[in-house]
Amino acid sequence: QKGSKVLTAENGQRAVDILSVNPDIDVIFMDLWMPDLDGLQATREIRQVLGSLVPIIGLTADHTCSLAQQAMEAGMQTVLLKPARWDQLERKISMHIRPQKSEDAGASGQRAKSPDNIPYSLVDVNE
């Protein structure tokens, strides 16, 4: 919605693979517990192996503070508890992606698009 393109991955390894061939991803929603490669390790690989600085927002049903701390240490910007509401997701997107200039802004000095209508792409990693 709102001009976004969503890419999905069934596990953390697939998310790393997608990002390696699509480096222009604007934000990743990463489940912390997945088969094959969990969200923490996938985040470490995205940061260390790919060298990507794309914002990664963790999602988990685990309410422990230690897991959230591990996620931040792995390189995630923040963690949301599931089930996350759409307004929470939108707020995190607008906090962590840089606004893209409107194609019409050019020399006319018009303002960039607001966070509510910025086109962005997501990698949504589901269990």
From TrEMBL:
Modified residues (4-aspartylphosphate): D31
Span of domain Response regulatory: 1-97
Naturally occurring in which organism (per UniProt): Eutreptiella gymnastica
Entry annotated with the keyword Phosphoprotein: yes
Annotated region described as Disordered, given as residue ranges: 96-127
UniProt name for this protein: Response regulatory domain-containing protein
SMART domains, alphabetized: REC
Transmembrane helix among keywords: no
